[in-house]
């Protein structure tokens, strides 16, 4: 079977991956589409740090069992077609288009479909999913668009955690895929004034298409100089951003941190204390938010088509990872096995 795997920090094409065999409660699916996520790019560049920090966080309980000297399977933004069910497993009929939160249930417990030496992800022709977690893709939705329910759920979760009201102004700093998903979710929530900030003209243009009422180029001055808001979403994930927001934000601002920074960072708590800021760090989403994001796309309340800026086959995943390093060129590249 064909797949693209992470090896020594690079995505490598293989045509000799063993076929997945479903156990009880599992189904084999043919991957129709898989989005390349920023977390995959982060892991390719900082895999050792991710493993070390995850294991430090786990403190021996549920540590990340991953060997970076072996091939790593990835791909968690997927849509697929049901092929075959495992023993004694009732599920959707073959040919049904589905998606799922990226985990598979097995006799080992819950196995995340994120980074694994053994659990196949969406950068493969076929993979295993759990029958009880499958969601049929509704309304004849394009499988390419259904695959983006996962990143849209991340943005929806950040918006839900912010507690923002329709009459408040939202400032979104960083218009990569997660910033864009936050903007789309804010628009669905009826927020009446959404301001997006990014250095890239193409990303600002995309932010406007996805629902931002105003875009700001930070090279022309800090957005805090012109935008009056007490709700800020940080979607950049580089050192110094949080501290800068804390210094510039208004008293009582709610700062929602969605950007994943892999380097140590320095903040001055004095700024947050003096202004009584609220810092909310967010990660992933709930199953209910995943379902809501899928239906928002299927019902036309979120149009993800503008986000899709490229498509590659499995042999092209490595080059796509390189291309995504240019923020002015791409937002979301889809892998279509």
UniProtKB/TrEMBL annotation:
<dbReference type="InterPro" id="IPR036291">
    <property type="entry name" value="NAD(P)-bd_dom_sf"/>
</dbReference>
<feature type="domain" description="Alcohol dehydrogenase-like N-terminal">
    <location>
        <begin position="23"/>
        <end position="138"/>
    </location>
</feature>
<dbReference type="Pfam" id="PF08240">
    <property type="entry name" value="ADH_N"/>
</dbReference>
<dbReference type="InterPro" id="IPR011032">
    <property type="entry name" value="GroES-like_sf"/>
</dbReference>
<keyword id="KW-0560">Oxidoreductase</keyword>
<protein>
    <submittedName>
        <fullName>Alcohol dehydrogenase</fullName>
    </submittedName>
</protein>
<dbReference type="GO" id="GO:0016491">
    <property type="term" value="F:oxidoreductase activity"/>
</dbReference>
<dbReference type="InterPro" id="IPR013149">
    <property type="entry name" value="ADH-like_C"/>
</dbReference>
<dbReference type="Pfam" id="PF00107">
    <property type="entry name" value="ADH_zinc_N"/>
</dbReference>
<feature type="domain" description="Alcohol dehydrogenase-like C-terminal">
    <location>
        <begin position="177"/>
        <end position="298"/>
    </location>
</feature>
<dbReference type="InterPro" id="IPR013154">
    <property type="entry name" value="ADH-like_N"/>
</dbReference>
């Amino acid at each position: 079977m064909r797949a693209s795997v992470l090896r020594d920090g690079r995505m490598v094409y293989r045509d000799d991956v063993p076929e997945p065999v479903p156990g009880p409660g599992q189904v084999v699916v043919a991957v129709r589409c898989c989005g390349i996520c920023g977390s995959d790019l982060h892991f390719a560049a900082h895999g050792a740090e991710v493993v070390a920090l995850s294991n430090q966080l786990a403190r021996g309980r549920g540590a990340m069992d991953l060997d970076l000297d072996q091939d790593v399977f990835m791909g968690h933004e997927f849509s697929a077609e049901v092929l075959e069910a495992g023993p004694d497993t009732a599920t959707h009929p073959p040919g049904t288009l589905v998606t799922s939160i990226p985990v598979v249930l097995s006799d080992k417990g819950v196995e995340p479909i994120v980074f694994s030496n053994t659990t196949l992800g969406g950068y493969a022709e076929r993979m295993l999913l759990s029958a009880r977690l499958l969601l049929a893709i509704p309304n004849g939705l394009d499988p390419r668009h259904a695959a983006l329910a996962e990143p849209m759920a991340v943005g929806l979760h950040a918006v839900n955690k912010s507690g923002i009201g329709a009459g408040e102004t939202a400032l979104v700093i960083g218009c990569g895929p997660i910033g864009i998903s936050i903007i789309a979710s804010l628009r669905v929530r009826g927020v009446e004034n959404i301001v997006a900030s990014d250095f890239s003209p193409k990303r600002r243009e995309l932010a406007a298409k996805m629902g931002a009422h105003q875009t700001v180029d930070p090279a022309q001055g800090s957005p805090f100089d012109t935008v009056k808001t007490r709700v800020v979403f940080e979607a950049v994930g580089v050192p110094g951003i949080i501290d800068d927001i804390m210094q510039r934000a208004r008293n009582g601002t709610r700062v929602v941190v969605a950007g994943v920074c892999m380097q140590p960072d320095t903040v001055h708590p004095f700024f947050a204390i003096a202004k009584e800021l609220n810092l909310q760090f967010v990660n992933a989403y709930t199953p209910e938010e995943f379902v809501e994001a899928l239906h928002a796309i299927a019902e036309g309340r979120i149009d993800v088509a503008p986000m899709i800026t490229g498509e590659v086959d499995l042999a092209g995943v490595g080059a796509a990872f390189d291309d995504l390093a240019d923020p002015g060129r791409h937002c979301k590249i889809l892998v279509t096995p």
